[in-house]
Amino acid sequence: MANTLLTPTIIAKEALIALENNLVLANLVHRDYSSEYQSIGATVIIRKPATFTSASVSGTVNLSTAVESSVVVVLNQQLDVTFNVSDRELSLEVVDFSEQFIQPVMRAHAQKVDELVAALYADVAGHFPASSTSSVSDITNLRSVMNILKVPLTDRRLVFHPATEARYLPLDAFLHAEKRADGGRAIREAEIGRVLGFNCYMDQNIPSHTCAMTDLAGAASAATVGATSIVLYNLASAEVISAGDVFKPTGISEWCVVTTAVTLSGGGIATVSFAPALVTAIPDATVVTFQATHKANLAFHKNAFALVTAPLAPPIGGARAAVLNYKGLSCRVVYDYTMMTKQNLISIDMLCGVKTLDRNLAARLSDAN
C-alpha cells in the first residue's frame, strides 16, 4: 500500500543513517559536533585531549597540571545535492525511496567527506616508502616510524589506496588477518583486518600525491635543531616545490613535509618552510632527497585528524525543512517547488570542516609503484 508523502524529517533520518553507514575515513578520525546553527565560513573551537607529565616522587608528590589546548576548525564546506522528484516518487514507501534517492545522494556526500579527510595527508611528515616487492617488512618499518613518533599503541589505523591494497592482500599477514566488524557497514566492507598493530582498511578516496619536480636530489645549507626552514640548492631551476612534498636530509631519520609551495630560482635555490622542526642539526652541503609521486596511504591515530560538523539553520519563508543530527553528523533537508516547471525539488546539504590536530600522530606509507 502506498505511503503518505514523505516528510523532510523522515528523509533526514534516513539520510543520516545512510551517511554514517557509507563513511570510511571519517568514521576513523576524531569527530566533533557543534549543536548551534552555523553557516559557511563559521569557526568552531574544539578541545584536544589533555596531556600530563610523569615525574618521579622525591619526598612530596608534584601536583600535575592538565595541559589542555584547543584548535580552531573552519566550517568551510557546505556540501549539497539537489534533485527533482515527482509526486508519485514522494508517495513511495520510505525503503523504496531510500534505495532510489537517499542512498545514492548520501554515498556522494560520504565520498566527498572522505576526500576532505584524506587530503589532510599533505600535513603529514612521518613517512616510509613502500618497497617495490610489497613486503610485510614495509608494515613493520611503518610501525617503527609510528613508535618513534610515540604514537599510542591503541587506535592505530592504516588506510590503503585501492592499488596498494591489491599489492599487499596476497601476503599471508593480510590474507589471514583477523576479521573484525568494529564500525558501520562501510567500515566492515572496507576492513582488511588487524595487522601488526594496525586496523587496516581500504578507501577509494585515498589520493596520490604528485611531486612535480624532475630533480629529486639536491643539497641543503646548514640548519640547527628546531629549524623550520632551510635553504635548498643544486636542484633544477624554476621548478615548483609543492606543499605536501616530503624530503629527507641524509644522516637523520626524520622526514620533512613542505608547508608552503615555493618556486626554485634560476640557480635551483629556494628557502623552503617545512614541519616538524628538526631534532638533529645538519651541516652544510647535506644531501637532500625528495619522495617521488606516490599513493599517500595513511597510518594514523584517531586523534591525528578531526571532522567537525554543525547544523545549518532551517530556511526562512515557509519552506518545508528538517535539520537533524545523528552520531555527530548533521544534515538539512529542504523541500521546494518550481512553479514554472511544476517540479518538486529536494535539497540535502550538510556543513563540515576538517583539521589536522597533531601531525605527529600520523605517517604516510608512500607507494610509488
Describe this structure in words.
By secondary structure, this protein is α+β, with helices and mostly antiparallel strands. It folds into 3 domains: 8-48 and 70-119 and 306-352, Major capsid protein gp5 fold (2-Layer Sandwich), CATH 3.30.2400; 122-207 and 296-304 and 360-367, hypothetical protein PF0899 domain (hypothetical protein PF0899 fold, 2-Layer Sandwich); 211-292, Elongation Factor Tu (Ef-tu), domain 3 (Beta Barrel). The protein is 20% helix and 36% strand. It contains 7 helices and 23 strands. The protein has helices spanning 8-22, 87-90, 94-118, 137-148, 162-168, 172-175, 185-190, and strands spanning 30-33, 42-51, 67-75, 77-85, 127-129, 156-160, 191-195, 198-202, 208-209, 217-220, 229-233, 240-241, 246-249, 256-258, 262-263, 270-275, 286-290, 294-301, 305-310, 321-326, 329-338, 343-356, 362-367. The strands form 5 sheets. Strands 5, 6, 7, 8, 9, 18 and 23 form a 7-stranded mixed beta sheet that branches. Strands 1, 4, 19, 20, 21 and 22 form a 6-stranded mixed beta sheet that branches. Strand 13 and strand 14 (256-258) form a beta hairpin. Helix 1 (8-22) crosses helix 3.
